[in-house]
Amino acid sequence: MTHGQVWPKPVIQNSYNVYLEFEQENFYFNSTGYSCDLLHEAFKRYKGLLFLKAKKTSQWLRRLPKNKIAGTLEKLNVKLLSPCEDYPSLNMDEKYEIKIRKSGGTLMAKSIWGILRGLESFSQLIIFEKYCLTFVIRCTSITDYPKFRHRGLLLDTSRHYLPVQTIISMLDAMSYSKLNVFHWHIIDDNSFPYQSKAFPSLSDKGAYGQSAIYSTNDIKLVIEHARQRGIRVIPEIDSPGHTLSWGLGGIPGLLTQCSDTDPNYFGPIDPTVDENYSFIKTLLTEVNELFRDQYLHLGGDEVNMNCWNNSKKLQTFMTLNNISNVEGLEDYYFKHIFNITRELKTVPIVWEELFSDNIHLDHNVVVQIWKPNNFSSLVQEVIDSGYAVLISSCWYLNYIKYGSDWSSFYNCDLSDIVDRNNLLLGGEACVWGEFVDETNVLPLSWPRASAVAEVLWSQVTNYTEARLRLEEHTCRMKRRGVPAQPANGPGFCTY
């Protein structure tokens, strides 16, 4: 493996064959620019991460020659050039510069988010040299910034409820690879763990149990933990499909009765009931105020059209309203939903089905592509139609196979996509929860999500070169408490 190399790979890095020692007791971060609570909390966090030693110490780096140690690094001067922003956003500035010289070390960025990314890179430059019994850092200069603005990870907490502490651990791991969006697929057919203040019966009756509910305080804790690490939290309230758990909450007429002969066979939300839109508006208003991000994921995938086709009530409604097919009924539904998001001044994200079904989309909609077949042509079509786009097609982490499979995520080729108007925002790795719970979500996700992170951050990717850095990064995550699975087969974390 490499030693003291950064993940994801920086845009520009020049390293020199000269090292500085650290004295753990004397090293400190020195703020020389703007300051805020986010900055000082980051100093405390990274002071702890800088000096972690592995438990297994049977093999280490070769001893550095005495003439390579040029002095001691006593402090890192951290210069924040602008006042701190309260919350991360799509257009946050994550650029940073690091200079480690014999004369000292500096980290500089215009925004607090760039400082956070720079602190992570600085922490990765440090190695423990056993024979000298000291931490050392190589003299280096880095100029770095991300290729894409949206670098996310979707986590499904409906199929299996994930404890808050597990989500916290995922956020920590995301920050170690500079991912900046937590897409929280919080509810689905299987359970409704989101505790709504306006409609508490949704979780009381739709969750797996009282111990499998996310309270307002739980969600605020997740959002704050993410904010401290420069990670946005975007909730997904998927409808009109994937809503069977909603039907347990006692909202009259919410779901479509799919069969006149079977009163217990329900499907998507009934788009013909006006009261359903009032209910959804209240729910989305509450969610939007709690989560605070400008973006809100509306879902829209895998709607059971057969149910709507089989409903005599809906067919009659379609005839009376000159709606010729169920896609027209879906269009009718989302016309109301987009009216709500416009009132809330939030930017909607939807799955690709809405674009493919020719639903009338708001001009500011973001389309997320998830189906694997020929996805780049669909991405190009969405961009050419003037809509922003996210890609997930390459990056379903819950699809696993025996062996080292991170290369399939790393080698996802986006080079043939022509993006003249900066509409390709980035992408997301997805961890769907059918066979994922708190026992396996972390090793299943890491370091595989790190491969996605480098594709979305780095300007140039090279699998052969990345392989050794990922081996080090995997050991680094393990040392920090993330149970990352082996990246490349047989090996041993030597520090």
TrEMBL record:
The keyword Zinc does not apply. Its EC number is 3.2.1.52. Disulfide bonds join C36-C84, C258-C307, C475-C493. InterPro entries: Beta_hexosaminidase_sua/sub, GH, Glyco_hydro_20_cat, Hex-like_dom2, HEX_eukaryotic_N. Pfam families: Glyco_hydro_20, Glycohydro_20b2. Residues 6-125 form the Beta-hexosaminidase eukaryotic type N-terminal domain. One of its GO terms (cellular component) is lysosome. Residues 148-459 form the Glycoside hydrolase family 20 catalytic domain. The active site is at E302 (proton donor). GO terms for molecular function: beta-N-acetylhexosaminidase activity. Gene3D superfamilies: Chitobiase/beta-hexosaminidase domain 2-like, Glycosidases. GO terms for biological process: carbohydrate metabolic process; ganglioside catabolic process; glycosaminoglycan metabolic process. Keywords: Disulfide bond, Glycoprotein, Glycosidase, Hydrolase, Signal. It comes from the Eukaryota. It catalyses: Hydrolysis of terminal non-reducing N-acetyl-D-hexosamine residues in N-acetyl-beta-D-hexosaminides. Belongs to the glycosyl hydrolase 20 family. This is Beta-hexosaminidase. It comes from Sipha flava (yellow sugarcane aphid). The lineage of its organism: Eukaryota, Metazoa, Ecdysozoa, Arthropoda, Hexapoda.
